[in-house]
Structure formats: C-alpha cells, structure tokens
Amino acid sequence: MGGLERLIAALGRAVAWLTLVMVLVTVCIVVLRYGFNLGWIWLQESVVYMHAAVFMLAAAWTLQDDGHVRVDIFYRERSDAYRDWVNLAGYLFLLMPFCVCLMVMGWEYVAASWRLLEGSREAGGLPTVYLLKSLILLMPALLLAQALCAGVAAIGRLRAEPG
C-alpha cells in the first residue's frame, strides 16, 4: 500500500468516527429540544456537515476496502484476473469519467461559494457553507486517486499473471 492509499485509509478511518459524534450530537439535540425546550440551528447544521463528511470523504476508503455495493452474480465466482479486468474497466469507463465530470461541473459552484465565503441562510447557522460545498470536489478527487492506485495495482497483477 502506497502513501496515497495510506492517506486515504487514514482519512476514511478518521471521518468514520464522525458517525459516533453524529449520534451523540443528535441525542443532545433531542434532549435539549424536548427536555429543556432549547435548540440551536448551528448544532443541527453540524449534524448535516458531519453526515456529508462521512459519506463524501470516506467513499474512496470504502472503494479501497472493496466495501461498495455491487451486483456480483457474475463476479464473485470468477478468477482474480477476471475480477481485475472487470474492476479496471469499471475504473476507466465508469468511475474516472464520473469523477472528472463531477469535478468539472462542480468547480464553478464551489468557487462561487468560496468567493462569497458563503454561510448558512439561517440566523445562527454555521458560517462555513463554502467548506461543506468543497466536499463536492474532494470526494471525486479522492475517488480518482484511489481508482488510479487500484488500477495500477490491477495492471501489475495482470502483467504478473502467467500467459
């Protein structure tokens, strides 16, 4: 595992802990709201931010760990070489174009948010919407990096195969 893959795994493991934090913050929100009639918009928005971070920043780690859902009726009983070819085709023709498209389409949207230093539209909300929107570019960048690493590894295994 290379340095880039270790970084992706470390980031994935780190943001995975946000699921526990989300549960605890949600419990606090419920207790404060219904037990003490208190509530803060920023606290509720923080759960949304954490939720987005978990799904968008851990996607590449999930790919690395082969944890994404797939229809493997014709995949699981096949040879390792067959699986490498299928994965390589998926990376090249599906995942990589999707990542590039998302980055190209999302660039101006995220850049506009940064130019404004966009904050929440709600009074008392978090002033960092631009950081949340940045995940739109970080997710495909991390997925693209992981797909490149996995693709290079698959090619290496295929080249090492006899015949």
List its traits.
single chain; 163 residues; mainly alpha; 77% helix
SSE diagram, text form:
Elements: H1 3-16, H2 18-36, H3 41-57, H4 59-64, H5 80-116, H6 129-160
Helix pairs in contact: 1-3, 2-3, 3-6, 5-6
Structure overview:
The chain is mainly α. It has one domain. It has helices at residues 3-16, 18-36, 41-57, 59-64, 80-116, 129-160. The radius of gyration is 20 Å and the shape is elongated.
**Low-confidence runs:** none
Cα-to-Cα separation, first versus last residue: 26 Å
N-to-C order of helices and strands = HHHHHH
Strand segment count: 0
Main sheet record: none
* Shape descriptor: elongated
Percent of residues in helices comes to over 70%
**Strand coverage percent:** under 5%
